[in-house]
Amino acid sequence: MIDLHTHTNKSDGTDTPRELINKAISMGISLLGLTDHDTTAGWMEAAQSARGSISLALGSEISCLSDDGTSVHMLGLLFDGNDKEMQEMLEAVRDGRVPRMQKIIAKMQAAGFDISMEDVEAARPPGATLGRPHLADALVNKKIIKSRDEAFQGMLNNNSQFYVSHAAPTPLDAIRIIKKAGGVSVIAHPFASLRGKILKAADFAELAKAGLNGVEVDHRDQNPDERGMLRNIATELGLVVTGASDYHGSGKLNALAEFQTSPDQWEKLESQANQRRVVST
Ligand code: AMP
Ligand code: ZN
Ligand code: FE
Ligand code: FE
C-alpha cells in the first residue's frame, strides 16, 4: 500500500508524526508520503519513528497561487531538506500566513464574530504551519460552529466573504525549486472544484514543460469524471498518476490509504528524483 499525501500536527493534521507513522505501520502501509503544508518540520520525528518494513517519502505540500489567482497545491517529494532555496520558499509561505489570518479575523470581527488571533494561536499546535483549520478549531472552541467541516462548507470556504489569500509562489516557481532541490513534484487534487477556482486542462502542458512529474488523480475531492479527465491529461503529457488519502487525522473525514498509488507509478516517480532519498530502516 502506497499513500503519498498525508498531514500531521506540524500543519493542519491532528496526529503527531509519530502517531501517523504508527497508524501507517499498523495498517500495513509500505510507503508513506509525509506532506505537511509548507514545512518539513515533521521529517525528523517521522524518520525516527519508522521501523519494520515501512518506507517514507518525505515531502511537503506547497501552497501556490497562479498568476490568475487560482490556488494550487504542489506536492514536493524526495527533495533535499537542507536546500536553501526550498527552505526559503517554505518559510516565505509560512510567514505570509500570519498577516493573512489577521485579515480574515479582522473581517470576521467587523461582521460581529467574537474571535481573535489569540483564540487561533491557542488552537494551533506549537510550530504548526498556520491555516484556516486552526481558525475553524478556534471557532469550534468558542461554540460559534460545530466542526472544521461546517467551517469549510460556509464561512471559511474560498468563496466566502471572509476569504483572503496569502503570498505564495506560482506553481511554476514551486516546480522549478523542487526540481533544483533534487525532488519530484506532483500537483495535488487539481480538479477539486469544491475548494474554489481550479486549473484548466490547458494549464497542464506548461507545468509539464517546467518539469512537473505527476498528477494526483485518485483523491476524494475529485469525482469519476474529473479523475478520467486527469488520467487522460497525465497520459498525454507522460506524467505519473498518483492516488492518495490527504489524511488529516481527525481534522477531516479522509481515511489513511483510502486512495493509493500503484507500485509501477511510484517506481517511475521515484526514478525522477536526482538521488535515492526514500527513508527505510
Ligand atoms: P489554508 O491552508 O489555510 O488555505 O486552509 C486550507 C486547508 O483546509 C487545506 O489544507 C484543507 O486540507 C483544509 N480543509 C479544506 N476543506 C476542509 C474540510 N471540509 N474539513 C477540514 N479541513 C478542510
Ligand atoms: Zn490541510
Ligand atoms: Fe491540498
Ligand atoms: Fe493535503
Helix/strand/pairing category: alpha/beta
**Which shape, going by the Cα principal axes?**
globular
Q: Which sequence of SSEs, written as H and E, runs from N to C?
A: EHEHEEHHHHHEHEHEHE
Q: Which stretches are poorly predicted, pLDDT < 50 over at least 5 residues?
A: none
Q: Mean pLDDT score, rounded?
A: 96
Largest sheet: 8 strands, mixed
**Separation of the first and last Cα atoms:** 17 Å
Question: What would you note in describing this structure?
Answer:
With 281 residues, the chain is an alpha/beta fold. It folds into two domains: 2-94 and 166-270, TIM Barrel (Alpha-Beta Barrel); 97-153, DNA polymerase, domain 1 (Orthogonal Bundle). It contains ten helices and eight strands. Strands 1, 2, 3, 4, 5, 6, 7 and 8 form an eight-stranded mixed sheet that branches. It starts with a strand and ends with a strand. 46% of the residues are buried. Adenosine monophosphate binds at residues 12, 37, 63, 131-133, 148-149, 152, 248, 251-252.
In short:
This protein is α/β, with parallel strands linked by helices. It has 10 helices and 8 strands.
Topology diagram in text:
Blueprint: E1 2-3, H1 17-27, E2 31-34, H2 43-49, E3 55-65, E4 71-77, H3 84-110, H4 117-123, H5 132-141, H6 148-153, H7 171-180, E5 184-188, H8 203-209, E6 214-218, H9 224-237, E7 240-243, H10 263-270, E8 279-280
The structure holds adenosine monophosphate, zinc ion and fe (iii) ion (2 copies).
One fe (iii) ion binds next to loops.
